[in-house]
Amino acid sequence: MIPTERHQQIMALVAERGVMSIAELTERLGVSHMTIRRDVQKLEEQGAVISVSGGVRTAERLATEPSHLAKTSMYSEEKMAIGQRAAQHIPSDSCIYLDAGTTTLALARELLARDDLLVVTNDFVIARLLMEGSDCRLIHTGGSVCRENRSSVGDAAARTLRTLAIDIAFISASCWGPRGLYTPDEHKVPVKQAACDVSSKRILLSDSSKYNKIATWLALPLTRFDQVITDRQLNKTGRETLSAGSWELILAGQE
């Protein structure tokens, strides 16, 4: 049996059962544990399945993104810890990009005392916070307005970003995993890609509740990032997988 056929059978079996152990897959497909583990690794890289202890399960898919209001009250302590840790990585007189999101909003709150930064954002809540509470210089990307997430999206916002030279881009994620970060909204993709393209350093900010989930659109591969900052609730498998990547994994918060 060629690898493609095994991959299809693995996905069909896992879809039917929800979760299957490596031993069960080995028996059903008549191949070695090592072969199954390689197949599972390949499928996980494609976002098709998720590894769990001793087995594999179907990937949890995000169909729609929660509104900004709903996200504000979710995992607020973890987001605060991530924001505090991320703020430590911003040198004086930097030009930074803050992607739309409540985790990047937590970072923005850490910058209210700064007066040396040029902050670029597509997020209206972040722009208002810094406009009213800080002396940072501000650029808003403009573009098509996404009311639910209180941000600008689409090609117009991306074109503005491509005229800039940014030191550090802090990118948010609806969901993410070893393959990269995903979004259920295709209009967010060009904005995230443009921000990464024009930035010297790229940092993903996302809490661990979004890890190992997928959505329709793969916005960016994780290999585009220099650092990933998440919280200490990230499970052991996630820590091991992400620590082996080309990026630096940083866990924020108390042990």
Provide a descriptive summary of the structure in words:
This protein has 255 residues and is an alpha/beta fold. It is 37% helix and 26% strand. It has helices spanning 3-17, 22-29, 33-45, 68-72, 76-87, 102-109, 124-133, 155-161, 189-197, 236-243, and strands at 19-21, 49-52, 55-58, 60-61, 95-98, 118-121, 137-140, 144-146, 151-153, 166-171, 175-176, 180-183, 199-205, 213-214, 217-221, 227-231, 248-252. The strands form five sheets. The protein has a seven-stranded parallel sheet, sandwiched between helices. A three-stranded antiparallel sheet has the order 1-3-2. The protein starts with a helix and ends with a strand.
Total E-strand runs: 17
Stretches where pLDDT falls below 50 for ≥5 residues?
none
Structural class: alpha/beta
As a percent range, the share of helical residues equals: 25-40%
CA-based shape = elongated
Q: Biggest β-sheet: count, sense, barrel? A: 7 strands, parallel
Give the H and E element order. Answer: HEHHEEEHHEHEHEEEHEEEHEEEEHE
- For the residues shown, what is the average pLDDT? 89
Rounded Rg: 19 Å
Biggest β-sheet: strands ordered side by side in the sheet:
7-6-5-10-13-16-17
Question: How many helix segments?
Answer: 10
Distance between the first and last residues' Cα: 46 Å
Beta strand %: 25-35%
Question: Keyphrases for this structure?
Answer:
255 residues, alpha/beta, seven-stranded parallel beta sheet, 10 helices, elongated
